[in-house]
Design brief:
The chain is α/β, with parallel strands linked by helices and 320 residues long. It is built from eleven helices and 14 strands. The N and C termini lie far apart (46 Å).
Length: 320
């Protein structure tokens, strides 16, 4: 990969399964040394895109390059240049962590001595030295994800793909993995392509994000820029179920409607935080009891809602 070639590019990338276009014309460009967050709900096309970029799935149409190599015409060159930690990666439960790392070194053509040295470095790096000789079948979810990360780093890849790396992890394991991803990026300059449905994860780690919905990119940019474009702070009010329409009508002059689940009304306050007092007044005048109320600054979920008309987190509960 030359300095002028971005580590990851995609142009009008498409993947169809019969009549369903799971990925529908995706354009991407990830800069060298960047942590790029790929956000979207389940079924949006995140994992399908990653599988095409990592040569596990052939595109139906469009082009993509990774580490300067075409994913269709040069798949072996792509695979040699990348590290991949997939959400559903299979790890042999009857092998130890150390044995799996030695096997990975062999598969990448790393000599016996160098492979053993690299294995010890990686075990220490991901905090698995003490568990290295235990069968992987006895590892916790967090330990398995850290081992998966170590396996992906064995050959010191220039580009690392992490597909929902913290799904199912407890909060402490999630933070520890975040710290490791940051170290990889800042100390080694590794380009990271991170798919996630956790907004906080993208906000914490990503220099830029792309939001995908229905196979299409609906927003792209730095998290801070995207949030500032949403603009207004949100007022979230819990009311009795069945009173949402009346509450929205009462609040129409105070702020603009935003999607929310049943029993909740959300608006972007026209006058900023100062408008919260007026919202309380108009709801009281309309005889609508407030069960709970909170004021929030714009989030990536607000960005997603503004782009799609529904929420990313708990989108299946949102009212249309």
């Amino acid at each position: 990969m030359t300095k002028s070639t971005p580590p990851i590019t995609a142009h009008q990338l498409v993947r169809a399964f019969g009549d369903v276009r799971a990925v529908d014309g995706v354009d991407l460009e990830v800069a060298e040394g960047e942590i790029f967050g790929f956000l979207g709900p389940n079924g949006a096309g995140k994992s399908t895109t990653v599988r095409m970029l990592t040569t596990l799935l052939r595109p139906t149409d469009g082009t993509a390059t990774v580490a300067g190599f075409d994913v269709v015409r040069q798949p072996a060159r792509v695979r040699a240049a990348i590290g991949v930690a997939l959400q559903d990666a299979a790890i042999d439960p009857l092998m130890t962590g150390r044995e799996l790392l030695h096997l990975q070194a062999t598969l990448y053509g790393i000599g016996r001595s160098a492979g053993r040295t690299r294995s010890e470095e990686l075990l220490d790096r991901v905090g698995l030295t003490e568990a290295a000789d235990r069968l992987v079948g006895g590892y916790s979810g967090g330990m398995r994800r850290r081992l998966d990360l170590a396996l992906a780093l064995m050959h010191e890849p220039a580009v690392l793909f992490l597909d929902e790396p913290t799904t199912g992890l407890d909060p402490m394991s999630r933070v520890n993995l975040w710290d490791e991803v940051r170290r990889l990026n800042t100390e080694q300059g590794t380009t990271v392509f991170l798919t996630t449905q956790y907004l906080e994860e993208a906000d914490e780690l990503a220099h830029r994000v792309a939001i995908i919905d229905g196979g299409r990119i609906v927003r792209e940019g730095a998290p801070s820029t995207l949030k500032s474009q949403v603009g207004l702070p949100s007022l979230i009010v819990d009311v009795q179920i069945g009173r949402e329409d009346a509450a929205r009508e009462a609040l129409a002059g105070v702020g603009e409607y935003r999607p929310a689940r049943a029993g909740r009304v959300a608006i972007g306050l026209f006058e900023g935080a100062a408008g919260a007092a007026e919202a309380v007044r108009v709801l009281d005048a309309a005889g609508i009891a407030i069960e709970h109320m909170e004021l929030t600054t714009p989030t990536l979920d607000d960005v997603f809602a503004e782009a799609t008309g529904r929420r990313l987190e708990g989108a299946e509960e949102a009212t249309p």
